[in-house]
Write a structure and sequence with these properties.
The protein is elongated. About 15% of the residues are buried. The mean pLDDT is about 75. By secondary structure, the chain is mostly helical. The longest helix is centred in the first third of the chain and has 34 residues. It has one domain. InterPro entries: TAXIMIN_1/2 (IPR055283). Keywords: Membrane, Transmembrane, Transmembrane helix.
């Protein structure tokens, strides 16, 4: 199995979950912007940097969910 395999069933099954994750990633984007601004204003607050990293993981969540569902369905 290569990277170019097409698994439309896994994509279709994962699509509703990815849409939910998209809403969560929008919340993550807002948290990332706020965390980045606060960490630039007060660099001594390292917890905001960790919060910004968590927000970036939330932003990447829809892609991770779709990939997981696609790779769970065999050809």
């Amino acid at each position: 199995m290569g990277d170019g395999d097409c698994r439309p069933l896994g994509f279709l099954i994962g699509l509703p979950f990815a849409l939910i994750a998209l809403v969560i990633s929008l919340i993550g984007a807002v948290i990332w912007i706020i965390g980045s601004v606060v960490s630039c204003l007060c660099p001594c607050c390292c917890c905001f940097a960790g919060l910004a990293n968590l927000a970036v993981d939330l932003i990447k969540l829809p892609i991770k969910i779709l990939r997981w569902f696609i790779y769970q369905i065999p050809c």
